[in-house]
Amino acid sequence: MLSLLLLALASPAVASIIHNRAYDSPSFRVPQLGTSRDAVRRNHKRWEYYDGKVEFPYNVASGDPESDSVILWTHPVPTTDDPRPVCLEYQVSKSNDSWSDIITADQVWTTQDVDYSYKVEAKGLEPRTTYYYRFANCADKENVSPVGRFLTTPKEDDVEVDKLSFAVFSCSNYPYGFFNAYGNAAARDSIDYAVHVGDYIYEYRGDGCKDYYSCYGDGRDIGRVPEPNLELFTLEDYRTRYKQYRSDEDLQALHASHAWQLVWDDHEVADNSWKAGSADSNDTVAGTQYNTSFTERKANAVKAYFEWLPIRTVDTDDGLRIWRSFKFGTLADLFMLDTRQYNRDLTDLYYNTAEVRLLENDDARSLMGGRQENWFYNELKNSSERGAQWKLVGQQIVFANLVSDNVDAWDGYKANRRRVLDTISQNNIDNVIILSGDSHANWVSDITYDEKEGYNTVTGDGSYAVEFAGTAVSSPSSLGYNSTLNKPLPAEQYIQTSTALINATGNEELQWSEGATRGYFELHLTRQDATAVFYGIDDVRTRHSDERVLATFVVEDKANKLRRPLADGQVTGGVLADRG
Ligand SMILES: *[C@@H]1O[C@H](CO)[C@@H](O)[C@H](O)[C@H]1NC(C)=O
Ligand SMILES: *[C@@H]1O[C@H](CO)[C@@H](O)[C@H](O)[C@H]1NC(C)=O
Ligand SMILES: *[C@@H]1O[C@H](CO)[C@@H](O)[C@H](O)[C@H]1NC(C)=O
Ligand SMILES: *[C@@H]1O[C@H](CO)[C@@H](O)[C@H](O)[C@H]1NC(C)=O
Ligand SMILES: *[C@@H]1O[C@H](CO)[C@@H](O)[C@H](O)[C@H]1NC(C)=O
Ligand SMILES: *[C@@H]1O[C@H](CO)[C@@H](O)[C@H](O)[C@H]1NC(C)=O
């Protein structure tokens, strides 16, 4: 007993390995996930850590801010090949000047078991406060990382907060183009937080052209050939891909300048994934490639995701749960949904489209799974009851009912969509704004039931919510792309396609369609209104900072529809509905 006690006292390192959240997975129920800290301890009996220099080639990141804590992330690389654990001290300060006034700090280890990922929760912070953070090598305190910055959220009961802004991103495909969108948002610095609704990486190999959605060129002409240059299956594959993405300077800039809230879409695992498979993998012999079943592949992908992204582990007893929520005083709640990996029923896998079309009205079908659906509906009700003004729903696929009938979007899960609308309408919940990605084009819609009963297509009265679906950071347009030339189509072709979409009978909810540009949008909330500003980038085949405001939409408090005239009648791209 005494010797154990002495050992514990002599080994502060025991505690420090516990605090590295990179060893956690979203779930203790999935055996392939997470890394046993006991096993790690057994491998490093002498409690001796690396005493050479480290580099920080992947910079720093922060995420999932709360009013008193945040997740901080980095990934040190020892300069010599040495199997010993690396010890870093994270440091948080209100100033980036002298680093003499450190508010919180701790020494935490990382090891090869988690590929040297380092993820900690910094606690004891003040609400609505800007902090700076960095990581110092325990063996040499002069050997420090770059400095990052984040803002804590307002306290849940903060009634004074009257301004809040986010930039919303999706679909960043490395070989297809440069991440100008991330770089521009970091440089303009006009937001509080960055939200990513998925497809943060792509799992394809460079020449993986199966169809025009997945035919993204090989990246050779712009020096962005995927690493490894094969489709991802193993843990090592996914880790290598994250290393490549996180070497990108624009992505690094936005990670360092703002805390992010992220959820995954399909490509963090595999194209058109659902709970039990993806377009090209499943757990049958035929669907097993590289001797990796879909279940193993998903576990590999998920483990790498948790190692690389600054997100919290929400509930280790609940499957692959990453759906979670954030409170921003009484101004807003943000719900981050997982419509992909958690419990999605069968989706369109290209060879079964007709079959899935037959199922789209099935009441039992769920996109989110029963547990997440119940959670979400309760959260919406609670949010309304606690008086949170704006209810932001960060999720992946396009929500509006569209005649294009993409059954890999909410259109393929109509009963789940109706249950969301029932929750909103039956509880008189105001100010719901849905934030979507996935589609590589811009779509702005009022949201009502599929039958559109009581919906005035001119004024928007009878709408229950609003959707802002943003285009891709770099993935090519879903409204057409010339994969032979590896170039967008001529601009007028996008205008023709958008005009047809806006004019199609059944698409009356859709108010703006734009497919020519890559980019992102910002959402600025006040007590009076929510304003979405869409930024378009014409060319992502070179790295530059050119972008333009395509359109600005306003949703007034409690209006639950887009303000007319739409975008004040002015857009610099795409097609605005004209139903007056
Ligand atoms: C912190 O200070 C350093 C040194 O002056 C500077 O290079 C860096 O840009 C600053 N970082 C932030 C996030 O302000
Ligand atoms: C599994 O994948 C293979 C190959 O893509 C496909 O032929 C097969 O139909 C799939 N099986 C199921 C049950 O989806
Ligand atoms: C799959 O496993 C078999 C049997 O162990 C082996 O012969 C084959 O090379 C493996 N294939 C791949 C792609 O790893
Ligand atoms: C909603 O509020 C009730 C009552 O405060 C609480 O028991 C429940 O856990 C909350 N639900 C969610 C999803 O937060
Ligand atoms: C792509 O460009 C080539 C060469 O100009 C042309 O022949 C082809 O029709 C274009 N494809 C599309 C989809 O526009
Ligand atoms: C839609 O069609 C009508 C005529 O049917 C036309 O006047 C209008 O300009 C078209 N375009 C849009 C964007 O509404």
From TrEMBL:
Q: Name one GO molecular function term.
A: acid phosphatase activity
- Any idea where the Phospholipase D N-terminal domain is? 60-152
Annotated signal peptide: 1-15
| Entry keywords, A to Z | Signal
Alphabetized InterPro entries for the sequence: Metallo-depent_PP-like (IPR029052), PhoD-like_MPP (IPR018946), PhoD-like_sf (IPR038607), PhoD_N (IPR032093), Phospholipid_Metab_Enz (IPR052900), Purple_acid_Pase-like_N (IPR008963)
The UniProt record lists the PhoD-like phosphatase metallophosphatase domain at 166-532
Q: Pfam family example for this protein?
A: PhoD
Gene3D superfamilies under this entry? PhoD-like phosphatase, Purple acid phosphatase-like, N-terminal
Q: Which PANTHER family match?
A: PHOSPHATASE, PUTATIVE (AFU_ORTHOLOGUE AFUA_6G08710)-RELATED
Q: What's the protein here called?
A: Alkaline phosphatase
| Naturally occurring in which organism (per UniProt) | Kwoniella bestiolae CBS 10118
